[in-house]
Amino acid sequence: MRLLLVELERHFPLLTKLKQPLAETFGFEVEVAREIYAPAYGAFNAARSQWDGENLLRQLSSAFQHAPYSAVLAFFPYDLYAKGYRRAFGIAENNGKVAVVAYHYLDPALHGNPDEELFLRRLVKKSVHEIGHVIGLPHCTRPYCVMNFARTLLFLDRKQAAFCSKCRFLLGAQRPAESVD
Ligand SMILES: [Zn+2]
Ligand SMILES: [Zn+2]
User: How far is the CA of 147 from the centre of ligand 1 (A)?
Assistant: First the structure.
């Protein structure tokens, strides 16, 4: 299976550092898209000064529907929201193909504490979590599991980047056989 990582709006240098951990976690081939994708401005909600995650996801879904990848994970540099949530660190098509990680608030530098290792750990957790949704995994109630829903950065920092035994089992059951694609 192949996973495509996509930069939205601007170059994101940390992206290449996610290739290896994601390849190891899922056993996917991981590539980085050569072109930066610029979503339509219609996804921006001026009243909230935030971007509409669902709108962004729909755009990406149609832009990459024929791309020869099992999953497409896009990295967005601005503040994102989703229906019912003030802010979203990520959004995914459940049992679909496309997901977004909104990394603006994940960067410790934004909170006055530049720490690239911490930033990277958060990015890996968010990426694994969103790809988990794309593969079809729901949220997990175990607080340390990567599929646990992290409401805040504190919860995100507490959980691990790995799947619990139950989610690992589900992952194996959901994943299509290698020969399918
Ligand atoms: Zn989730
Ligand atoms: Zn779990």
Answer: 6
CA atoms within 13 A on the CB side of 125: 24
CA of 45 to the centre of ligand 2 (A): 34
24-66 pLDDT, tens per residue? 999 999 999 999 999 998 899 999 999 999 999 999 999 999 9
User: How does DSSP classify residue 51?
Assistant: E
- Ligand nearest to the CA of residue 160, numbered in listed order: 2
- Distance from C-alpha of 172 to C-alpha of 167, rounded to nearest angstrom: 9
Stretch (H or E) spanning 119: helix 116-135
* Contact between residue 19 and residue 32 where contact means Cβ atoms under 8 Å apart: yes
| pLDDT single digits (tens) 116-171 | 999 999 999 999 999 999 999 999 999 999 999 998 999 999 999 999 999 999 99
* Structure tokens belonging to residue 9: 């709006």
Ordered domains of the chain (ranges, CATH): 2-174 (3.40.390.10)
Q: Give the global pTM.
A: 0.94
Distance from C-alpha of 44 to C-alpha of 79, rounded to nearest angstrom: 10
